[in-house]
């Protein structure tokens, strides 16, 4: 029973998901939409409960397969907060689903549980099962508008490429198991120095990197991202951008630093190259985009590159910067997607010029999107700036040992400069459109109260992490410390 | 990894055999197609039967979608029983906690069934 | 060649056949079948490594294979449902026809 207590947060999320599924059966159709608020309240309660957990030392369950340490707890809170905001966005989106509104909420909760399990994974078995729980759930979430061509197409593309990448992942795990004789990260770290030279082990780890690289959307495994981001229902895209990507990173960090710490220096070059290519690909391909969601897809690829930069430093500061950056990314991207979700239904098409005059229709929406773009572009004083600053700083601190990092930092700076162009293109389209909109021509957009609070929360988060970074930096440092003592 | 201590030789064999086997199959198929059956499609040749009546409709008959729904539900429940096998084998040595965990697993399956039932997925419309 | 090696080569062949199928086929169902072959190749590896490895008394390998089978079933169920939805919409399961998202 002790084991179950250690994974209490995950169990609570699963129970909430099952409860939503069962409640749906006896809820009148008109009320189904509000189940989303019930789910959001449950997630919020679990988030609050997570702050009551005090960890004098890391806890382990199921024979060390599952660990609850500060690192896992940081990500548990991250995922819970992300899911809370995504659920509020989903309620706004709910009337566009013909059927299965409650199932959409339940699937978000199941994906959340998968992400939280991923945060605590200390064994390749749990890594695989949690990753698949996330991925299979997202196949359904992506194709949820099953009468819309785009949604179906996004779903089938994600399915084929996702299934292919998980086949590589499983094969990689098999090779690792065969070489090291264990699947536990801790025991692998003990066994690794003796077998690290084995090509079979390295092949296995490389295949695992393929599987995780797919989740993170790192070049060359990024092909799915723009299509899926564009075609999927907006709340699913939002959760994919934040939750799924962070889950990929949490597993990558665990594998690199807990399972095979000796491998880091050997892979340093590889990670640096991947990071540089990903940043450049993301920013260059984003330039000609007109569709807002597709632009966010390329932006998410570029951001995966920036996050990978922090991983490539292989230092505690780098990991801490990754965690901080993800925190800022959460508020920024979810704020942007909340606006996209509401604004796009009142505009014609999803193209960026359709945003013209948004500030007249709803100042709050326009302000949130503008701030999100400023933050993504890395302009002070918002969260994105400080996150990029920490990432680059951590890279420069260890660049003496690995001169290739200087090149990577230069590439990242170039990437930031290029990205200013398309992020500010969005702002310009809202406030200074090419074809001015007549005053009073467009009806104002009404916002529901939960959505307004969520938007304000995202704005507050972006400002808070940008202006007063101290507290989150401390949390990130604490979490990074458990990984790299 | 291998017991006789030739990891590189083995790996080369491993990769080489995989690639060669794969390519040779594809190559053989292509060779066969080129040598033995030059492509000369025609309406008569493409017909399933050269004599007798022309076949009607597509061979890929569409089944009713309710059939697929059954099949998918069956697939999931059928495969989940794989987890019952180790449970049954180790039954006599199980602790109470493990037993309870397995009951929870079964309860989850039952919940899935109840959900599918109430949603009308089991009714043949 | 030891028994383990022959199993590993068999599994590598199976994996390659699956990969070749997944990459060359255009029908979504056949692509999924190819991917299932790749997963089963990995399962075969697990069982072989467990049976001929140094610790056959620890059941990790078998356990992973069971999980992998379970997950593959879930993936197949979702995949088939998705392909049926695609088929209803496009009247084809050919992946080359499913291309409206570009850019």
Key words describing this protein structure:
heterotrimer, A: mainly alpha, two-stranded antiparallel ribbon, 2 strands, B: 125 residues, mainly alpha
Protein described:
The complex is a heterotrimer of chains A (485), B (125) and C (103). Chain A is mainly α and 485 residues long. Chain A contains 20 helices and 2 strands. Chain A has helices spanning 2-6, 8-25, 35-50, 70-93, 101-120, 124-142, 149-180, 185-195, 199-216, 224-231, 234-259, 264-286, 292-312, 316-343, 358-361, 363-377, 383-398, 404-431, 449-467, 470-483, and strands at residues 59-61, 66-68. Chain A has a two-stranded antiparallel ribbon with strand order 1-2. Chain B has 125 residues and is mostly helical. Chain B folds into 2 domains: 1-61, no CATH class; 65-118. Chain B contains 5 helices and no strands. Helix content of chain C is 76%, strand content 0%. Chain C has helices at residues 3-24, 28-52, 60-90. The interface between A and C is large, with 44 and 45 residues.
Report the major sheet of chain A: 2 strands, antiparallel
- What value does the average pLDDT of chain C take? 88
* Computed structural class of chain A: mainly alpha
- Binned, the helix content of chain C reads over 70%
Summarize the model shown.
The complex is a heterotrimer of chains A (485), B (125) and C (103). Chain A is an all-alpha fold. Chain A has a domain at 265-485.
